[in-house]
Design goal:
Blueprint lengths: L1 E3 L6 H13 L3 E6 L4 E6 L5 H8 L4 E4 L21 E2 L2 E2 L5 E5 L8 H14 L3 E3 L18 H12 L3 E4 L3 H9 L4 E4 L7 H10 L7 E4 L7 H13 L5 E4 L19 H7 L5 E2 L1 H5 L5 H10 L4 E5 L11 H4 L3 H19 L3
Parallel strand pairs: 7-8, 7-14, 8-9, 9-10, 10-11, 11-12, 13-14
Antiparallel strand pairs: 1-4, 2-3, 5-6
This protein binds phosphoenolpyruvate (PEP) and manganese (II) ion (MN).
């Protein structure tokens, strides 16, 4: 990773740096951080000669070689001061609440729009809505591209940013064309490295924040952090970790709730953490407690499945969505807990 003396290199300087690393079989990926650009060396950066030639350039401040499977996500990385923003909200400064239906029912757009309005009224900052759905059974409803229009209509009506999951490149094209504000990578694609890398590259210019769910069969925390590295190495530093429960499930819950990994993620990496308590516990009555636990562990926010009438929902909504009234109280409680937790950050 190359740090320049100025916040960014000029075109000529970048060309020179690219020429040098190219001689050693490496390439440069520019990552536009909030305050400065970082120049990641992609490839085997161990060559002393290459590093010495780079250090010899008068506009280069330093060259960091971090010995870790993830370099950019590392707390020691020059990106560690990077701040991820959602609209004007800076993650870490104030709690971020994302809420809305698990799944948009294309046969009932009105219900989604009413949920979105109620979620906004309850105080949420981002509207969630599943357009395409990864389902265990190939015979279950898989979502529908036309739901993207409904999601965008919800943004137009509420003025809030929207988040949707993409499962493949075809979805990514539709989501980026619709200018979705945040992208979600679901638990099943958390290790789909080619998709992660593609998202990083395709969002390089606009820096769309990407919420990366933890794979439900993921092992060590480093594996989760390294997956995020694929997105950032593509050029987009706006990545958010999302613990959402892992398998095997804790008896009685849908998964094994894992909000407790939040401080460990923060110890190793700089990216913000937004916990998904809904999929972790899988039962609406336990979602408020799991959300508060996440905030107590230092999460920067939560993403909570919320539905105006859960019984009429599809996908996960009937069993795990809370109602907007419960969300309103939960947001108040999160705001009350936030300053208490900040003492322990
Ligand atoms: C979802 O958010 O509705 C979802 C399918 O999430 P996960 O990938 O965590 O199961
Ligand atoms: Mn869901």
């Amino acid at each position: 990773m190359i740090l320049s003396k100025a916040p960014q290199l000029t075109d000529e300087q970048l060309e020179e740096v690219q020429r040098i690393v190219g001689e050693f079989g490496c390439a440069i990926q520019v990552i536009k951080g909030a305050n400065r650009h970082v120049y990641a060396i992609i490839g085997d950066e161990r060559s002393e000669t290459m590093v010495n030639r780079l250090l010899g350039l008068d506009y280069v401040e330093r060259v960091d070689r971090i010995e870790s499977v993830y370099k950019l996500m590392n707390r020691q990385s020059a990106l560690s001061s990077h701040q991820v923003k959602i609209g004007e909200r800076v993650l870490g400064q104030e709690p971020v609440i994302m809420a809305g239906q698990c799944t948009i029912d294309p046969k009932n757009p009105q219900l989604f729009l009413e949920t979105a309005a109620a979620v906004k009224e309850a105080g949420a900052h981002v509207i969630r809505g599943g357009v395409w759905k990864p389902r265990t059974s190939p015979h279950s409803f898989q979502g529908a591209s036309e739901s993207m229009e409904i999601l965008i209509e919800a943004r137009n009506q509420t003025g809030l940013p929207v988040i949707a999951e993409v499962m493949e490149e075809r979805h990514l094209v539709v989501a980026l064309e619709a200018e979705v504000d945040l992208l979600q990578i679901g638990t099943r694609n958390a290790l789909n490295y080619s998709l992660l890398a593609r998202i990083g590259m395709d969002t390089h210019q606009r820096g769309t924040p990407v919420l990366l769910k933890r794979g439900r069969h993921m092992g060590p925390i480093d594996e989760f952090i390294a997956a995020a590295e694929y997105i950032v190495a593509g050029g987009n530093p706006n990545v958010i970790f999302c613990p959402r429960g892992t398998m095997p499930a804790l008896d009685g819950y849908r998964n094994h709730p894992d909000e407790s990994i939040t401080p460990l993620l923060k110890e190793k990496s700089w990216a913000p953490v937004v916990v998904d308590p809904s999929h972790a516990v899988g039962r609406s009555k336990y979602v408020p407690a799991a959300s508060l636990a996440a905030i107590a562990y230092g999460a920067d926010g939560v993403i909570v499945e919320t539905h105006l009438e859960p019984r009429k929902g599809i996908g996960d909504d009937p069993k795990q969505s809370i109602t907007p009234d419960v969300l309103r109280q939960l947001i108040r409680d999160v705001e009350a807990l936030w300053p208490i937790q900040s003492r322990w950050r």
